[in-house]
Structures are given as C-alpha cells and as structure tokens.
Amino acid sequence: MDQIKKRMEALRVEADESSSKAEEYKAKVKALEAETTQKEQEITSLTHKNQVLESEVEKLEGSVKTYKDEAAGGAAAGTQAESMQRKIQVLEDEAEESDRQIRELNEKLRQTDVKSGHYERKVQALEQSRDQWETKYEEMAQKYEATKKELDDFVKEIGNI
C-alpha cells in the first residue's frame, strides 16, 4: 500500500504538474491568440495603409507624368527660346552692321558736304572771274568798235586826200 500511496502521490504530483503545465499552456495559447489578434489587426491596418499608399503612388505617378509632359513642353519652349535668342543675336548683329554703315554714310555725307562747300566757293569764284572777264570783254569790244570806227574814219580821211 505504501507503494500505491507513493504511486498515487506521484500521480497527483504529476497531475498537478500537468495541470499547472496545462494552465501555463492555456495562458500561452491565450497570449498567442491575443498576439495573433493583434498581428491580424496590424495586418489589416497595414493592408489599409498599403492601399492608401498605392492610391497615393498612382496619384504621384499621374503627377510625374504631368510634370514630364510639362517638362517636355518646357524643353520645347527652351528650344524655341534658344532659337529666338539666336534670331535676336542675328538681328542685333544686323543692327550693329546697319549702325556701322549709317556711321560710314554719315561720314561720307559730311565729307561730301565739305567738298560741296569747297566746290560752291570755287564756282562762286569762277563766276566772279567769268563776270570780270565778260566785263573786260565788253569793254574791249567797245574799245575795238571805237578803234575800228576811228580806223575807218582815218581810212576815209586818207582816201579823201
């Protein structure tokens, strides 16, 4: 009997240990279930966040496409601006060349005006000289006529003698 009591005692201790282990395992199962529930909630929350982020990514991709399109338009505008800058440079060069030609023409005009003034003075001097020569010619023509008349008169007088 002693053996049976020992055996019973051993079985009770074993049953107590098993019971305490079972409770310990139940507590672990509850903790794991709670942890699983928490993890499932986290998964649900992360899934929702993922969906929100995917939606945000789609919006951002749309924005990126829009910005790329605008950048392409901007590049075209940049190309057009460069073309316009080249045209402006060409026009500025042409304007500078025109200014240079105008300065040259103004200098030539000034020189022509100076020459014109010089020639006008020469013309005036020549006209005065011409007028003096005409006056002298007329005087000489009168003297010639007078002398011719005298000569004719003298020839008549000599012819009458």
Automatic annotation (TrEMBL):
<dbReference type="InterPro" id="IPR000533">
    <property type="entry name" value="Tropomyosin"/>
</dbReference>
<feature type="region of interest" description="Disordered">
    <location>
        <begin position="1"/>
        <end position="22"/>
    </location>
</feature>
<protein>
    <recommendedName>
        <fullName>Tropomyosin</fullName>
    </recommendedName>
</protein>
<dbReference type="Pfam" id="PF00261">
    <property type="entry name" value="Tropomyosin"/>
</dbReference>
<keyword id="KW-0175">Coiled coil</keyword>
